[in-house]
Amino acid sequence: xxxxxxxxxxxxLGHEGRLTxxxxxxxxxxxxxxxxxxxxxxxxxxxxxxxxLNVLSHAGLITSRREGRSIIYSADFTAxxxxxxxxxxxxxxGSPEICAPLGGIVxxxxxxxxxxxxNANA
Amino acid sequence: xxxxxxxxxxxxLGHEGRLTxxxxxxxxxxxxxxxxxxxxxxxxxxxxxxxxLNVLSHAGLITSRREGRSIIYSADFTAxxxxxxxxxxxxxxGSPEICAPLGGIVxxxxxxxxxxxxNANA
DNA sequence: TCCATAATTCCAGTATGGTCGAAATATTCG
DNA sequence: CGAATATTTCGACCATACTGGAATTATGGA
Lengths: 122, 122
Fold this sequence. Notes:
Two copies of one chain form a homodimer. Helices cover 61% and strands 11% of the residues of chain A. Chain A has a single domain, classed as Arc Repressor Mutant, subunit A (Orthogonal Bundle), CATH 1.10.10.10. In chain A, strand 2 and strand 3 (70-75) form a beta hairpin. In chain A, helix 2 (16-28) crosses helix 4 (46-58). By secondary structure, chain A is mainly alpha-helical. The interface between A and B is large, with 54 and 53 residues. Chain B binds a DNA duplex through helix 3 and helix 4.
């Protein structure tokens, strides 16, 4: 990922409303959530939500598909991992020992694979 | 980390100039880089750079210390790992199998601990 | 004290982004 | 086709952010 695309993604996420939307979609997984459902859950106006979804979409962070009358949005996990990789990239050569905590974070996530309860934070 | 702080950090990084500054500081590690040196390397105006450093600082992503006539800036790795953790947090419960690529990213970083050459991308 | 260097702050002008009401488009169903 | 639902687009207003020139503060040395 190049710097320009990464900045665009980060800028899109640098808005509390959009960040909340994105996290909701990440939680939902590949199944995705309909726009109206998002609006209901986050209590946001349809047009404002639409604008924010559009920003996230243009940043490549989410994708959409039509399903009947609804449009389903889902997080683009490839883009997400690409962004996270971009951020970690430089940490290694600069100060490898600093990356250690990141390993812990991912280990926690990996350990969750079937083993943890929702809202677990151990 | 709460949503508001995370959004502030992401917003600060959602600017190509600031993202470049931050990556430069991450590469530099705890030693840090003087403001003037950053300006020279990135060929940016002193006042513009100062404003950007201020944004990053207020977002908690970098710290500064005076050293003689210079002010040395360094990346705050605790904040960085906190931010990355925040982004990964939801991925687990939602779709654990999706976190796998993240493990690969960190494994690469971990493997770098003394073992890889600069600019390695394997 | 006076000067040079390092960095920041102040202050415009300009541009971009966010929000909301209202209207328009797309789809389903009777 | 006509009505209802789901979502987007349009248009305007307001707020915030970015840039760059000039002045200001802080440190170190003669």
